[in-house]
Design brief:
With 214 residues, the protein is α+β, with helices and mostly antiparallel strands. The protein has 2 domains: 30 residues, no CATH class; 160 residues, Glucose Permease (Domain IIA) (Distorted Sandwich), CATH 2.70.70. It has 4 helices and 14 strands. The strands form 3 sheets. The protein has an 8-stranded antiparallel sheet with strand order 9-5-6-7-11-3-2-13. It has a 3-stranded antiparallel sheet with strand order 1-14-12, with no helix packed on it. Strands 4-10-8 form a 3-stranded antiparallel sheet, with no helix packed on it. Strand 2 and strand 3 form a beta hairpin.
Length: 214
């Protein structure tokens, strides 16, 4: 806006429209609307606005995970939100390339910030991944901080991508092509911690039985 005033003063006022339009675009781009956060038990909300571009099962450290990828265009809200309530247990930033966020290789090669949140017996990992235009990832909470489901936690400036990793047994509620809203759209439901504990006990008993038979 200051540039618009300066240009309009030293040249013709009509030329001030260019920086003025840019200023209006930036104000619109960094908008931060309020959202109604779902309160259903086990709900995992989207960490970002955008389009679901990939739903796949991958292996991480020998464990199968459900990965949901969300592409953010320059027209989407870029404020990021916590997918679940819990404690921030890990934050790991990594420099990298700036490939198009639609490129699958961007998940591993681009600049990114990995966050691990643990709560209610679950651990959810989400990544803020820079895109072709993005050059700045912001994440505000620190390790040990408590975050609530749908709480604002950061932002990726301009086109980018957000990945979220869940248990492979999560009850998926979205598909490729769906549009989601950060903090408001439910991506999946995680089973209650008591069910996980029961499943773990059954598995332990089964393993003990197998060892006994051997």
């Amino acid at each position: 806006m200051a540039a618009a005033i300066l240009v309009g003063w030293v040249t013709h006022p009509v030329w001030a429209l260019v920086p003025l339009l840019l200023a209006m675009f930036f104000l619109w781009f960094f908008r931060d609307p309020e959202r109604a956060i779902p309160d259903q038990p086990g709900a995992v909300v989207s960490p970002a606005d955008g389009k679901i571009t990939d739903v796949s099962w991958i292996t991480v450290d020998g464990e199968e995970k459900l990965r949901i990828s969300i592409f953010l265009s320059v027209f989407d809200v870029h404020v990021n939100r916590s997918p679940i309530a819990g404690e921030v247990r890990e934050v790991r930033y990594r420099r990298g390339r700036f490939l198009n966020a639609m490129n699958q290789a961007s998940a591993e090669q681009n600049e990114q910030n990995m966050v691990r949140v643990e709560g209610d017996g679950h651990a959810v990992v989400f990544k803020q991944i820079a895109g072709l235009l993005a050059r700045r990832i912001v994440f505000n909470p620190k390790v040990g901080d408590r975050v609530e489901r749908g709480q604002r936690v950061g932002l990726i400036k301009f086109g980018s991508r957000t990945d979220i990793l869940l248990r492979a047994t999560a009850d998926l509620k979205v598909k490729v092509g769906d549009r989601v809203r950060g903090g408001a759209s439910v991506l999946a439901y995680l089973p209650p911690a008591v069910e996980l504990a029961a499943a773990g006990n059954r598995s332990a008993v089964g393993d003990a039985t197998i060892r006994g038979l051997r």
